[in-house]
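User: Run a structure prediction on this.
Assistant: Running it now.
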Amino acid sequence: MALVEINFDGLVGPSHNYAGLSLGNLASANNAGEVSYPRAAALQGLGKMRHNIALGLTQGLFAPLPRPNPVLLRALGLERTDESDAAQRRLRAAAWSASAMWTANAATVSPAPDTADGRCHLTAANLVTMPHRSQEWPDTVRQLRLAFANSAAFAVHDAVPACFGDEGAANHMRMCASHEAPGLEIFVYGTTGGAFPARQHEQASRAVARLHGLDPERCLFVEQSPEAIAAGAFHNDVVAVANERVLFTHEKAFAEPEETYAAIQARLPEAEVVVVPASVVSLQDAIRSYLFNAQLLTLPTGEMGLVIPLEAWETPSVRGWLEAHVASNGPIRKVLPVDVRQSMANGGGPACLRLRVVADPATVDPRFLLDEGKIERIETVVARTWPEQIDPADLGRESLAREVIVARAALLDVLALSELA
C-alpha cells in the first residue's frame, strides 16, 4: 500500500456559535456572547482545505454532526427550555454546539506500521470533560465507520469508558523517520491545571495504546505541564506539534521537558527537537497566537511547512522567531499563514480542524476525500444554506433550527452521504 498522511478537516457546521462553553479555552471564554458567522467560518475552513490541496497534499473532509442534537435535548428533558433558568439555557446551547468541526478531538489514530495486526486503528474520543463535547462520539463513530469501512485496512473502536477522559489526537503525537515507517507514539496526559481541568487522563491514553496493539517499547506517556494547562493550553496541541522526525514545542509544554526529549531521542535517534524558549515567545503569546496549533506537514518537495493562523503571523514575538528559524536553515522551511479567524475566536486553530490519518487513500471511502470540484460544490451549498450569522440568544429558535437542519441535509445530499442523515 502507498501510505500517505491524509488530513481530514471538519467542515464548520451551520450552527457555529459563541456560547462560551469550554472551560479552560481562553478564546472561547473571551468571545462568549459574540455574534458568530457560520457561513464565513465554513468558507474559511474550505479555503484552508483548498490551500492544502494546492500544496500537493491529500485532503479529506468530515461532515458536521446533527444539530441541534435531539438526543441530548430529550435526555436532559429540555425539549422546552425555561428561558429564566441560566443553567437550562447553557445546556440547550450545548445541544447546538458545532465543536465537532475540531476533528483533532474526533479520535486517536495509530497507522498500520505501528500496530500488531498491520491495520490503521482509530479510537473515538469520549470528550467527557465538557458537556457540549461529550455528546459527539456516537455520531463521530458512525462517520468514522463509513469513511474507514475497509476492515482489511482499518479498525474503528468505540470510545474508552467515560470514567477516563479522552480528548483524542489533540493529546497524541507520532514521530517517525517517514510516514510509512514504524513510529514512536507519544501520549500526553494532564494531572492538574489550577482552575482549569486536565482533560486527558493517563489511563485513557494507556487504554487506547492497548486497543491499538502498540508495542510498549514504541510508546511514551508524558505529562503535560500544569503551568501550560493553567495558562490556557487545554490540549497538548496548543503548545506542541510533531511531524515525522521533528518535534516542535514550547519550552513550557511538558512537566519534565528534558526527560521527555531524552526519551524521544533514545527511541528515535533521528528525532530533532525544536524548542521555542519562553524568553523569546512567552507562554501567553504562544497560546494567544496558536503558534503550535499549526499543521506541521511534509510537503511533496520533502521540505516541512508550518500552516499557521494569521493571528500567529501577526504576533511580533512569534513572527520574529519563525523568520529567524527559517533563516537559520532549521527543519521548518516554509511558514504558511491561513485565515481561520472564525474558528480561532472559539479556540480552534489549523491543527484543531484536522485529524491526521496515515493510510492508502484507495482504502478510504472516496466520498470523504476532496478535490477542487467537490470543494466548489460544497461552497455552493454553504453560500446558499448556511446562516450568515447567529447570536447565542437565537439558539433554540425554531426557525433557526429548521435552517440549520436543512443546511446540513443539503450538504449530505451533495456528498451522497445519506447514511448520516
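The two ends are 32 Å apart (CA to CA).
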